[in-house]
Design brief:
It comes from Paraburkholderia sprentiae WSM5005. By secondary structure, this protein is of the alpha/beta class. Helices cover 33% and strands 20% of the residues. The chain has helices at residues 4-21, 28-49, 169-179, 192-208, 231-249, 288-305, 320-328, 371-379, 396-413, 446-456, and strands at 75-76, 82-83, 89-93, 96-99, 102-103, 110-116, 119-124, 129-132, 139-142, 157-160, 183-188, 211-216, 256-259, 310-315, 345-351, 360-361, 368-369, 383-389, 419-424, 437-438, 441-442. Strand 8 (129-132) and strand 9 (139-142) form a beta hairpin.
């Protein structure tokens, strides 16, 4: 298991350029220099943290820390006790839950305690489910984590791209078909150049019967780089931009919009890029309303134009602390009763240094939990991984093996975890840091690994 300092070193490297410029919303030209810096930064951070080689040789894949951990699916009272991945012993007595002999939170009339996907869940006689959160003695409302609706087929294999590619929309469609992809994510703002590029793509994708996922790339800062004055100002900006984008693309079959790009991982929103984000307190309480406002504005702006469109909010690393607080209308300081953010699709970015999305720890020193299972139970909507890749410093041989391994993991879990799509980052990065092709030429073995997998594993 990777040590905590190695994990922190990786996140530190990502915080500066990898997180902020290696994403689907920027232009291809601006991202090329950012990724090169990220590759250098990743190596430096690994050396500073005592890691051998560059970050990404090992990842913070969370493993059980105890040999007698209970099997996934163990429940009380069918079993006498549960041993979780931390070694804690859970028991149920007279409808009350105990952990290591002490009551855990306030529980009563509990009829089921379940260990599933690395989390403890319980259900009372009234049929309501609750799950443990990464806050002491806290239970959150959720659905039964075992009840997952299989996602619709037809867009599982996806790719990221940029609005300013020199490829024509028809060339992009042809390239994607050759790789077995049926979906494509591109980021735009309401500027005419970007919208016109998106319209061209939407027309080509509509004609080809493929899915275009549009990232509305509105952030928490105004055009002068200043944080919006408050939640209302942020909401108004988000609403106006999203409404313009949806109005332009509605006629061409676009129905999925991602509202903002990594907004929880901006300088103004996360207190420390080194934290994994499992606690609401990891985020900036003062600036939280601005982030919440721009998210709400974008969702409402899209819905005002397309009531049946699906809106996603994306998160990074293990930002369930942020996701839960937004969904429930809470602030990072723990106060409640604030406006809620309710999305139709949970979207996530999962680069190798973040860890395995199916066993994602609070940091590299802790055992983890199954993130898609948790999100499906908490929010009850489909899950899309809108960006994934290994690190920018990896060679093509490593990247090819990584693609095969991760696609296998995603594919195996797609129906049991309601994963609607996984979108590789990126089609062409202008260099060999992230792209799967460059200037129209495939980069192998990455390209062939992707193509071979999709050919052998149909999306059905």
């Amino acid at each position: 298991m990777i040590k905590r300092r190695q994990f922190i070193g990786g996140l530190t490297a990502l915080s500066a350029s990898y997180l902020l410029t290696a994403c689907g919303g920027g232009s291809s030209s601006s991202n090329a220099s950012g990724k090169a810096a990220a590759a250098t930064g990743a190596s430096g951070a690994a050396a500073a943290s005592g890691a051998s080689g560059t970050t990404g040789n090992t990842t913070p894949v969370a493993k059980a820390s105890v040999s007698n951990m209970s099997a996934d699916g163990t429940s009380l009272p069918a079993s006498p006790y549960i041993i979780d991945q931390f070694g804690a012993k859970w028991t149920l007595s007279n409808g009350v839950i105990y952990r290591n002999g002490a009551t855990f939170g306030t529980t009563y009339n509990v009829s089921l305690v379940l260990f599933y996907g690395g989390k403890i869940w319980h259900c009372g006689t009234g049929g309501n489910f609750y799950v443990t959160a990464d806050v002491p003695n806290l239970w959150l409302n959720c659905n039964d984590p075992r009840n997952v609706i299989a996602p619709p087929t037809g867009m599982f294999y996806g790719m990221n791209g940029h609005f300013d590619y020199t490829y024509t929309p028809q060339q992009i469609v042809s390239i994607l078909k050759g790789m077995g992809c049926t979906s494509y994510r591109v980021g735009v703002t309401s500027g005419s150049n970007q919208l016109n590029a998106a319209i061209g793509l939407a027309q080509a994708f509509q004609a080809a019967g493929m899915t275009l996922v549009v990232l509305i790339n509105q952030g928490v800062y105004d055009s002068n780089g200043n944080l919006f004055a408050g939640e209302n100002a942020a909401y108004s900006q988000g609403y106006a931009v999203a409404q313009s984008v949806a109005n332009a693309l509605k006629p061409y079959g676009v129905t999925i919009y991602e509202c903002g790009n990594e907004l929880t991982r901006q300088n103004a929103t996360v207190l420390d890029f080194n934290v994994a984000g499992t606690k609401a307190a990891d985020f900036n309480n003062a600036n939280w309303p601005v982030m919440r406002g721009v998210m709400r504005g974008m969702i409402d702006g899209v819905k005002a134009v397309q009531s049946n469109a699906k809106c996603g909010i994306n998160f990074c690393v293990n930002d369930v602390g942020a996701a839960d607080a937004l969904w429930d209308g809470n602030q990072p300081d723990g106060s409640g009763g604030h406006p809620t953010v309710r999305w139709d699709i949970t979207t996530w970015h999962n680069y190798e240094v973040y860890g395995d999305v199916f066993s994602l720890g609070a940091d590299g020193a802790q055992p983890g939990f199954d993130l898609p299972i948790y999100c499906n139970a908490r929010y009850g909507v489909p899950f899309i991984i809108t960006e994934w890749n290994t690190g920018p410093e990896k060679n093509e041989s490593y990247r090819g093996n990584y693609i095969t391994t991760k696609l296998g993991e995603f594919y195996q879990n797609r129906k049991t975890h309601n994963i609607q799509g996984v979108m590789y980052y990126v089609l062409d990065s202008g260099d060999q840091t992230f792209g799967i092709m460059m200037n129209g030429t495939p980069l192998n073995p990455s390209y062939s690994a992707f193509q071979s997998f999709t050919a052998a594993h149909p999306d059905n």
